[in-house]
Structure to design on (413 residues):
């Protein structure tokens, strides 16, 4: 037992929803005014995400099926007749006040790097602008460290605000790319583009079929509520440790695997059936690298299978097969890719035992959240079972949300 943990009580399970979007945008505008002393030009926001299936495949040109959640990050902002970029947040006392013309990755650290990095990433487009001064107030709802892409929401809300303030007329995909550049080249964190694509390009009521080779997308109907189903998110509250190093290591393993197979990316390493896959994989000498490749190749196939089932009928009609694919995804991430931790496995096992159609970790792993596809009227019961399992393990109480497929980034007011 970990004595520092506060065991969960199964009776206190609450399925919390994010505060309404228009009220939250209003609040962000007020916070801006209180902080900067004048009214913002507008408020923009971008959501967090869950990935339904297609994990650790984006950086190998694979397919993913994420959806935006109702928790968003808001950016109230105004252009100023200066060259200063001033950024503040309702959640943190750190402030940024820097000459926007001389931004360099070394000059900004911590969360403001995700905002400044977007301006920096868009620099070639704004080279002609006379000034680029702006004030930005951030108000985030996406839980931090929960694997629900709070940083992508921050970048993408910033991208919407900055693009509008500087009238850059970018396409949504340009903003996705600016957000990715901000994270990888400015903030120095690895990412494969899944999170930013989901945050900008998702549509309400839909999941997003994403081809990570060219970032082309297609909305896929994902209306669980009308079918009596729900996607339960469990924020396991597991501490992320060594996340960046492990993520980089997995990427490196998958690159080694592609090289051993003589293909540009593992997306190109298709096998007709499991026997053909085993023959293909036998060309990889290193046992660990071989398992990493097995995950990526089979996960890409699972996304295609999942998508085909959704094209062939409703979630309800195929709920057992869809659930089985979610389960297979988690098992592969646990055994072959080794990115799960006990909190994730306990949440998934408890959800399955309590009657979920399928359950898996979502996001990068090593902590963060799980999802479970459940009957809507059993969501609380499944959540309660997870809480009980956590209490038995001496884990801190988890937090539950329902994943409601929400609209991607945009202007609020
Ligand atoms: C993190 C990264 C994404 C993706 C996932 C795993 O969320 O930011 O780009 O690689 O992990 O699917």
């Amino acid at each position: 037992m970990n004595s520092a943990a506060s065991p969960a009580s199964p009776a206190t399970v609450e399925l919390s929803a994010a505060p309404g979007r228009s009220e939250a945008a209003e609040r962000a505008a007020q916070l801006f005014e209180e902080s900067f002393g004048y009214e913002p030009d507008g408020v923009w926001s971008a959501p967090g995400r869950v990935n339904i299936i297609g994990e650790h495949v984006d950086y190998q040109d694979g397919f993913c099926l994420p959806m935006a959640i109702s928790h968003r990050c808001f950016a109230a902002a105004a252009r100023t007749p200066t060259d200063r970029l001033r950024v503040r947040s309702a959640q943190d006392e750190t402030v940024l006040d820097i000459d926007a013309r001389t931004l360099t990755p070394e000059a900004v650290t911590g969360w403001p790097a995700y905002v400044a990095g977007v301006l920096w990433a868009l620099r070639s487009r704004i080279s002609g602008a006379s000034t680029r001064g702006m004030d930005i107030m951030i108000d985030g709802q996406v839980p931090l460290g929960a694997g629900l892409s709070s940083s992508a929401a921050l970048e993408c809300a910033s991208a919407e605000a900055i693009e509008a303030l500087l009238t850059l007329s970018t396409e949504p995909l340009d903003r996705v790319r600016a957000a990715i550049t901000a994270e990888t080249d400015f903030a120095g964190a690895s990412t494969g583009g899944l999170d930013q694509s989901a945050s900008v390009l998702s549509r309400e009521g839909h999941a997003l079929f994403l081809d990570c080779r060219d970032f082309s997308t297609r909305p896929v109907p994902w209306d669980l509520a009308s079918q009596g189903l729900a996607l339960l998110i469990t924020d396991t509250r597991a501490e992320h440790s060594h996340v960046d190093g492990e993520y980089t290591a997995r990427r490196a393993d998958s690159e080694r695997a592609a090289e051993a197979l003589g293909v540009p990316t593992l997306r190109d390493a298709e096998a007709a059936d499991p026997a053909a896959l085993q023959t293909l994989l036998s060309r990889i000498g290193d046992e660990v690298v071989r398992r990493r490749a097995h995950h990526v190749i089979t996960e890409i196939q699972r996304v295609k299978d999942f998508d085909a089932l959704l094209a062939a009928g409703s979630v309800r009609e195929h709920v057992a097969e869809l659930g089985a694919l979610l389960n297979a995804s988690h098992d592969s991430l646990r055994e072959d890719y080794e990115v799960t931790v006990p909190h994730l496995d306990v949440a998934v096992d408890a959800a399955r035992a309590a009657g979920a159609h399928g359950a898996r970790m979502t996001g990068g792993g090593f902590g963060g959240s799980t999802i479970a596809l459940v009957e809507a009227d059993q969501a609380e019961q499944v959540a309660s079972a997870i809480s009980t399992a956590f209490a038995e393990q001496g884990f801190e109480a988890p937090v539950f949300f329902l994943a409601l497929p929400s609209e991607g980034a945009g202007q609020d007011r």
In short: The longest strand covers residues 63-79. The chain is about 40% helix and 20% strand.
